[in-house]
Amino acid sequence: MEPVRIAIVGCGVIGNIHAQWCVKDENITLQAVCDVNKEQADKVGKEHKALKICNDLNDVLNDDQIEGVILALPANLRAKFAVSVLKAGKHLLTEKPVARNQAEVQELIDNRGDLTVAVCSSRYSSFPFLQKIRDFIAAGNLGEIRVVHVRGIGEDAGPKDSEPPIWRVSHEFNGGGIFVNWGCYDLNYVMSLCNWTLKPKTVLAQTWQCADHLPMRVHETSDAETHAIAMIQCEGGPVINIERAEFAALKAETSWQIIGSKGSLRLQLTHWQEGPTEIFFDKADPKGKLITETLFSEQVDDGINHGGPVKDFAKCIRTGDTPLTSLENGMLMQKLTDAVYRSAKEQCAVVID
Ligand SMILES: NC(=O)c1ccc[n+]([C@@H]2O[C@H](COP(=O)([O-])OP(=O)(O)OC[C@H]3O[C@@H](n4cnc5c(N)ncnc54)[C@H](O)[C@@H]3O)[C@@H](O)[C@H]2O)c1
Predict the structure, then answer these.
(1) Which helix (DSSP H) or strand (DSSP E) does residue 230 occupy?
(2) Whose CA is closest to atom 31 on ligand 1?
(3) pLDDT for position 215
(4) Hey, whose CA ends up nearest to atom 15 of ligand 1?
(5) Which atom of ligand 1 is least distant from the CA of 168?
(6) Ligand 1 center from residue 169 Cα (angstroms)
(7) Following CA atoms 323, 241, 234, 343 in sequence, which dihedral angle do they give, to the nearest 10 degrees?
(8) Judgement on whether residues 111 and 144 belong to the same structural domain of the protein
(9) How far is the CA of 239 from the centre of ligand 1 (A)?
(10) What is the pLDDT of residues 196-229, one digit of tens each?
């Protein structure tokens, strides 16, 4: 296929990684990089030999050579920039979280037209081997889905080793705290494995900020939560139970499970641990004894999680296919996120419309 001419706006940590993957992909030309920070734009642009380096979004919007734009900016700029990109007639891959609230996602949908718009929360759902798991679930091997369980407890509350960027500690700038930083990956992962068949109805949630007595791993003015838990009831009975925490007084632990009436899957989201990535199917034999089958066990290159959304974006621009994670999927996850924060704030269950 003819390489897709892509520009990256925002040359920070993740913009630089997007640039690496654009350069590696024979179906992509890194047409431009853009950052208000000139030094940052020059560094990333020169290292990855971008055809153009600029510092103003308008230089991207007005460039007819550019077909698609990757927005790798903090979330507070995302919707505004995304709408400008779409109005300029360019395809869009937007970083996660897709936006900061439902109204912002709706603005993107309203301005999309026939353009391809993809969402980077697909990152951990983009490993090709996961299609086998989607097919396994779709074939009914789990029976009726009862519980989708996610527990992602990150780094402990040890001493601070680096200052987080300002957007990372502000609910206003980031659209939330740990629940948006990691919860969007969790939700994208489990919902895409269930082929987006789960229809959330009601959310009951609680969130907490970093405890005062813990060493300040987050900035003292931060209003972003570092611990969130939600129970999401779906149409027909399945429940998504999701907990995420960082800098908390508890041991790091990760667990993703899809539990059905006939059997259950034990999964991994991230793949950067030692050893192979493994996915297990647990089921009961006719006497009720548990049997475990290994559905997948291979050494996986975790780096591909970054390449997945970019490759898929370029392919969808040329084929017109729906991206791995569409704006409609993004909207569903945003509705859940908004409901989590509302439920925690108002101390009540929130119904999803
Ligand atoms: N850091 C990660 O590992 C990571 C991974 C996945 C997703 N993300 C998401 O991507 C987004 C960006 O994260 P990051 O870590 O790269 O942030 P960052 O702070 O490292 O980079 C953001 C960049 O955007 C630039 N920028 C700000 N305003 C701009 C403007 N008006 N025009 C052009 N450039 C502008 C900044 O100068 C900066 O270089 C966040 O929403 C984050 O949640 C980050």
Answers:
(1) strand 227-234
(2) 36
(3) 59
(4) 13
(5) 43
(6) 13
(7) -100
(8) no
(9) 33
(10) 999 999 999 999 998 877 755 666 778 899 999 9
Q: For the packed helices 102-112 and 327-346, what is the interaxial angle rounded to 10 degrees? A: 160
Query: What is the count of structural domains for the chain?
Result: 2
168 and 23 in a single domain? The answer is no
pLDDT tens digit sequence for 118-146? 999 999 999 999 999 999 999 999 999 99
Atom of ligand 1 nearest to the CA of 14: 16
Token pair in block for residue 183 = 């919860």
Residues 271-318 have pLDDT tens digits of 767 789 999 999 998 898 999 999 999 988 878 889 999 999 999 999
Provide the token pair at 327. 């704006």
- CA–centroid distance, 105 to ligand 1, in Å, is 19
Together in a domain, 61 and 194: no
User: What is the value of pTM for the model shown?
Assistant: 0.95
Structural domain of 280: 126-299+334-351
Structure tokens given for 83: 């709408």
CATH number (domain holding residue 318): 3.40.50.720
